[in-house]
UniProtKB/TrEMBL annotation:
Pfam families: YJL171C_Tos1_C, YJL171C_Tos1_N
Name by which UniProt lists this protein: glucan endo-1,3-beta-D-glucosidase
Enzyme category, top tier: hydrolase
GO biological process: cell wall organization
Matches recorded under PANTHER family: PROTEIN TOS1 (PTHR31737)
GO terms under cellular component: fungal-type cell wall
Keywords: Cell wall biogenesis/degradation, Glycosidase, Hydrolase, Signal
Length: 334
């Protein structure tokens, strides 16, 4: 899966902290050989009276499968989000690019910015913020499945009745925010829990997510999620079919439909962020033993790139350091 074995990566550096094992601090982690023919169990029905979930086998194949399916982007506080830019292959070059993917060779291709958020400018293009707050202004709450997706309050702490832009703020400890495209769901999204707010995920297979953020230490006295997540921020990507049905209830996650933990602080108050890929048969977890330094300074946010490369069959996470200015509208391929 990786360029080096676990033993090589950890030689002389492996150490334990609060029950978690780490190796060395790095700036980049690459997961190789992503994508294979397989299947997972997708939700096709949810019984609101009994709480029963009905599943059907969904076959997947192709470059980066199952991560060639649309993805949703998620954040857990404490996290101060400054910018998000999402890039897809330019339609004028994507046909040529697909031809290269089939032959296994790579030539330069142009990526265009299809989604963007800037906290300081309070600007958003092609994206919508949602949260698991169904029943608060939008979405739905049921005794059997809990909260569906809803629109998000500007401060990220609850639901809203209409699309709202996340303000320039630190998402509170343990609160979660989801980002999707601003295209409402159709049949391509698969089954959506009745009453849920639902927008399409970011399509693939090749795409780039550029983030600018910090993860300051911050603890609240009241949290809607388990206390062991207090002051344990995270960024992750899910197969978008997971939040459509129930991020923490009835979904395809356990059968391997796909999750990528970009930066996840495992221990409350910790200063190390790890990365893990969950996918495939048995929902195996391919975690890298190395870690990224948690960017705690709100005044010095770092930029992070998550690159899905269908040609190479790779997904990489890279901390780019500090930057200036707005993310550009187009980018060359790596």
């Amino acid at each position: 899966m990786k360029r080096h074995t676990h033993k090589q990566l950890c030689q002389g550096t492996s150490h334990e902290e609060n029950g978690n094992w780490y190796c060395r601090q790095v700036q980049r982690i690459t997961y190789e050989n992503i994508g294979a023919s397989g299947q997972y169990n997708e939700v096709v029905s949810m019984d609101q009276q009994t709480g029963d979930c009905e599943f059907a086998v969904r076959n997947v194949s192709g470059p980066l499968a199952p991560f060639n399916e649309p993805l949703s982007l998620h954040f857990r506080g404490p996290l101060n989000l400054k910018q998000v830019a999402v890039y897809m292959l330019d339609s004028s070059t994507s046909g040529h690019k697909q031809q290269q993917e089939n032959t296994g060779t790579s030539t330069p291709a142009q990526f265009v910015r299809t989604g963007y958020y800037n906290a300081a400018q309070q600007k958003a293009e092609g994206v919508v913020f949602l949260g698991n707050y169904g029943g608060q202004g939008s979405g739905k709450w049921t005794p059997k499945f809990g909260n569906t997706l809803s629109y998000l309050k500007a401060d990220g702490t609850g639901g809203a009745s209409e699309p709202t832009l996340l303000k320039d703020t630190t998402i509170s400890s343990s609160h979660e925010v989801a980002l999707l495209t601003n295209e409402t769901c159709d049949a391509s999204c698969g089954y959506v829990q009745p009453g849920s707010v639902a927008y399409k995920g970011f399509p693939g297979p090749s795409r780039i997510f550029l983030l600018e953020l910090s993860m300051p230490h911050f603890i609240t006295t009241t949290t809607p999620f388990p206390s062991n997540q207090a002051d344990a921020p995270a960024i992750w990507l899910l197969n978008a079919r997971i939040p459509y049905t129930g991020q923490y209830s009835c979904n395809c996650w356990a059968s391997g439909c796909g999750e990528i933990d970009v930066l996840e602080v495992l221990a409350a108050g910790g200063d190390k962020a790890v990365s893990t890929v969950h996918h495939g048969s048995g929902n195996r977890a391919d975690s890298d033993p190395n870690y990224f330094a948690r960017p705690v300074d709100v005044d010095q946010p770092v930029r992070v790139a998550v690159v899905f490369d269908a040609v190479q069959g790779e997904v990489s996470v890279q901390v780019l350091g500090q930057g200036r200015g707005e993310y550009e509208h187009s980018k060359g391929n790596r």
